[in-house]
Amino acid sequence: MKPASPETLQLTARVLAAKGDTARAGYILDRMLQEFPNYLGTYTEGAEVLLIDGRNAEAIKWLNRGLERFPNQPMLVNNRGMCHLLAADLPAATVDFNAAYAIDPNDAEYVANLALVKAIAGDETAAKELWSRVLPEAEVQRNIEIATKSRPNFSIK
C-alpha cells in the first residue's frame, strides 16, 4: 500500500475536524508535521483545525511555526492576522494584513482583509479605496457599515 500523501492527510484532517473529531484531526496534523514539515498545508490546515476547536492562541503559535519554515509566506501571515482579528487584537491583525498585502497586493483576500482593519480603525477612505478594488460599490458601503458597527468590539489605538 502506498503511503498517504500530504494532500490526502490534509483532506482527512479537514473532514475529521468538520465532523467535530478534532482530536483525530490533531493526530493527523501532528503526523503531517513530522512527515511533511515542508508542506504549506501542514500549517494552514493545522491552524484551521485549532480554530474549529476554539484554540485561537494555539492556532497563532502553529502559524508562527509555519512562518519559521516559510518566512514571509503571505497566506500564513494573512491567516495569522485573521487569528489576531478573531481575538479582537486589531493592532496585531493590522500588522499581519499590511504584511500580507505588501507581499502580494493583487490578492483579493489580502486586499479585503486590509480594508477591513482600516475600516474598523476608522480609516474609511482607505478602506473604501481598497474594497473598491475587489467588490462592487454596494458591497463596499455595506462592509463599511458592518465594520463601523463592530468597532466597539476592538480596542482602537
Structural topology:
Layout lengths: L5 H13 L3 H14 L4 H13 L3 H14 L4 H13 L3 H14 L4 H13 L3 H11 L2 H14 L7
What composes the largest sheet? none
Q: CATH fold name of the largest domain, please?
A: Serine Threonine Protein Phosphatase 5, Tetratricopeptide repeat
CATH architecture of the largest domain: Alpha Horseshoe
Number of domains: 2
Please give the share of residues in helix: over 70%
Low-confidence stretches: none
Q: How far apart, in Å, are the first and last alpha carbons?
A: 56 Å
Specify the overall morphology.
elongated
Briefly, what is this?
The protein has nine helices and no strands. It has 157 residues and is an all-alpha fold.
Can you tell me about this structure?
- It is a single chain.
- Helices cover 76% and strands 0% of the residues.
- The chain contains 9 helices and no strands.
- Helix 3 runs parallel beside helix 5.
- It is elongated.
Provide the descriptors you would attach to this structure in a database record:
157 residues; Serine Threonine Protein Phosphatase 5, Tetratricopeptide repeat; 9 helices; mainly alpha; 2 domains
